[in-house]
Amino acid sequence: MELFAIRDDEYPGDWFYRFQYYHPEEGEFLRYDNAHDDEDLGWHHRHVRFGEDSEIPFQNIGAHVARFLQEVVHLTDTEDTNHD
């Protein structure tokens, strides 16, 4: 997992960020970022290997990190369950 955020007032919410969760064998599973303004998704993106990219709401950096980590916990719980 990688969490990167740096204060930058040129980005919405005053942060430039990239949060990524990688599966050890299968590669990227989940990514949140605001690397660019997407015509369809806006600034705040959620990318998933197993579904469609989507726009996600952004309140503040702390809430965004918490949401990402909660989603990672859910993904890892699901992975563990699927291997039993």
Provide the fold topology.
Blueprint (H helix, E strand, L loop, with lengths): L1 E6 L7 E9 L3 E7 L11 E4 L5 E2 L5 H22 L2
Antiparallel strand pairs: 1-2, 2-3, 3-4, 4-5
Description:
With 84 residues, the chain is α+β, with helices and mostly antiparallel strands. The protein has one domain (2-82). It contains one helix and five strands, in the order βββββα. It has a five-stranded antiparallel beta sheet with strand order 1-2-3-4-5, covered by helices on one side. β2 (15-23) and β3 form a beta hairpin. The radius of gyration is 13 Å and the shape is globular. The model has no long low-confidence stretch (mean pLDDT 90).
Q: Tags for this entry?
A:
alpha+beta
The major sheet is characterized as: 5 strands, antiparallel
Q: Average pLDDT, to the nearest integer?
A: 90
Q: Please trace the helix and strand order, writing H or E for each element.
A: EEEEEH
* % residues in beta strands: 25-35%
Number of helical elements: 1
Query: What is the domain total for the residues?
Result: 1
Shape: globular
In which order are the strands of the major sheet placed? 1-2-3-4-5
Helix percent band: 25-40%
**What's the total count of β strands?**
5
Distance between the termini: 23 Å
CA-atom Rg in angstroms: 13 Å
Unreliable runs: none
What structural class do the secondary elements suggest? Answer: alpha+beta
